[in-house]
Amino acid sequence: MKKIISISNQKGGVGKTTTTINLATSLAAVKKNVLIVDADPQGNASTGLGLTYNDRKPSIYEMIHEKKLLTEGIKETLIPGLKIIAANTDLAAAEVELTNFENREFVFKSIFNEINNFDFIFVDCPPALGLLTINSLVASDTTLIPLQSEFFALEGLSALMKTIQLIQQNFNNNLQIEGILLTMLDKRNSLSSLVEKDVRRHFGNQVYKTTIPRNVKISEAPSHGKPALVYDTQAAGSLAYIELAKEVILNQNKNHE
Ligand SMILES: Nc1ncnc2c1ncn2[C@@H]1O[C@H](COP(=O)(O)OP(=O)(O)OP(=O)(O)O)[C@@H](O)[C@H]1O
Ligand SMILES: [Mg+2]
Fold first, then answer.
1. Most buried among 7, 142, 143, 182, by the most CB within 10 A?
2. What pLDDT score does 131 carry?
3. Quick one: CATH architecture of 3-251?
4. pLDDT greater than 80 at residue 257
């Protein structure tokens, strides 16, 4: 059975793409079949996995717009067991064009229904609460929310929670929160620790035990077109994403008991 997880937060630069790439890679490393859907016109997940411009078509946009086949759009990556539906800037047009679609909130869902043979599908959402993110959430079983460990972390989260509630009420009553992930944590910085405490007090066991440290190897990896886990397997950030993958699998097993 496949599980579809959107990585969402309309706040920019909080670690959505980094989490998508490295969590997906960690799960592929333990022999799960994993697909990333790059739903962000910036195409950072596609770049971070080393896809060249020509590799990036058809994106989910061409699948929607030109009815291109999934089989054409699902590309191999350098990681065995990890595939991707890439994105390019054309996807920005989808945000506008989707508004004219009947069932405009369900377009991703109908595409994902045709995708089989994966254990996990991760959708890397753009930093906005527009139709691309809404489509991702409507099509997902759960959403994982990265939060940057800084003063403004919680700002904007209520808008995201409201959107999730609206989607649960109107389009997808099965949507659940997979977990909240603290990213770019700097343990030496007392503000970082305060933010962590605050988030844990607020959201309790929805927050992963694992936190992702601020780690230079993580920020260097995308420019090499590699996940941090491949760029430097022993880096603190890489090890943290392996721990996160363990938690995701544990939660998955718990839910199936
Ligand atoms: N743990 C980390 N340590 C150091 N740098 C990080 C870490 N996580 C992410 N970064 C860097 O921070 C920047 C933003 O991360 P990322 O692209 O994953 O965020 P995002 O939420 O996907 O951004 P956007 O909203 O633009 O899609 C990137 O340059 C990334 O390399
Ligand atoms: Mg991103």
1. 7
2. 94
3. 3-Layer(aba) Sandwich (3.40)
4. no
Confidence of residue 121 (pLDDT cuts 50, 70, 90): very high
β-partners of residue 6 are: 123, 143
SS3 of residue 67 by DSSP: coil
Q: What is the DSSP string of 190-216?
A: HHHHHHHHHHHHHHGGGB-S--PBP-H
- Closest atom of ligand 1 relative to the 14 alpha carbon: 21
Instruction: Say if residue 70's pLDDT is above 80.
Output: no
Residue 156 has pLDDT above 90, yes or no: no
145 and 10 Cβ atoms separated by less than 8 Å: no
Q: What is the pTM of this model?
A: 0.96
Which amino acid type is present at position 182? L
Of 175, 129, 193, 191, which Cα lies nearest the Cα of 156?
129
Contact yes or no for 100/131 (Cβ under 8 A):
no
What pLDDT is attached to residue 107? 93
Name residues contacting ligand 1 (CB within 6 A).
12-18, 40, 42, 44, 127, 183-184, 212, 214-215, 218-219, 222, 237
Task: Identify whether the C-beta of residue 231 lies closer than 8 Å to the C-beta of residue 221.
Answer: yes
Q: Which ligand is nearest to the CA of 21?
A: 1
| Domain range list for the chain | 3-251
